[in-house]
Design brief:
By secondary structure, the chain is an alpha/beta fold. 31% of the residues lie in helices and 19% in strands. The chain starts with 15 loop residues before the first helix and ends with a helix.
Length: 191
């Protein structure tokens, strides 16, 4: 879109990126790594929750594509040797803590899975959980390719969790998308 999407204002007090990040903060993800561009002024970041383990990680190559940001985030958590990682996008303001927690709960009940992803009417979208066995595969992605190919591949064992609403997956890829998000935000907030 030519601008920092996460800084776009949904209302006078609320930026696009702050909404999704606040929801993720409620999930008690530890750590919660926020991958940002080198030129990000971070003004969109909401205050961290009381028990938050959130930290920002600057990705100097984010402009080269989503895979570079993903790799940066993974590299930040690898020293902690996590069992899995949640991948979410900050331009999806309608994701919920309950959806992310469902991904985690499903994985904990089925630890042999490579991934647990969100879906609506058959279309897989972030947020998604990937087991540690998938980290090398995720780091091998290139350019702006997301993990969609992994989710469609028969080489990996996963589970898709259907959601009731397509609104969970609204993201601001275009100005028109952002206009629809603002409209939905306005309806939900009553302003």
């Amino acid at each position: 879109m030519g601008v920092s999407k996460v800084s776009l204002q949904l209302s006078q007090e609320v930026s696009l990126g702050s909404v999704a990040l606040s929801e993720l903060d409620r999930c008690a993800l530890s750590p919660l790594i926020v991958v940002v561009r080198a030129d990000d002024d971070l003004k969109w970041l909401p205050p961290a929750g009381e028990r938050s383990t959130r930290r920002t990680e600057t990705c100097l190559t984010a402009h080269l594509g989503l895979s570079f940001s993903l790799r940066c985030g993974l590299n930040a958590i690898l020293p902690m040797q996590p069992d899995a990682a949640i991948v979410a996008l900050a331009d999806q303001p309608f994701i919920t803590a309950s959806l992310v927690n469902r991904l985690i709960d499903t994985y904990e009940r089925n630890p042999g899975l490579d991934y647990v992803a969100s879906t609506h009417e058959g279309l897989a979208m972030p947020p998604a959980l990937f087991s540690k066995e998938m980290f090398t595969v995720l780091q091998g992605l290139d350019g702006d390719k997301g993990a969609a190919g992994i989710l469609r591949s028969p080489d990996y064992k996963g589970m898709m969790l259907e959601t009731d609403s397509a609104h969970c997956f609204m993201d601001a890829d275009t100005e028109m998308d952002f206009g629809e998000i603002r409209k939905e935000w306005s309806l939900r907030s009553g302003s």
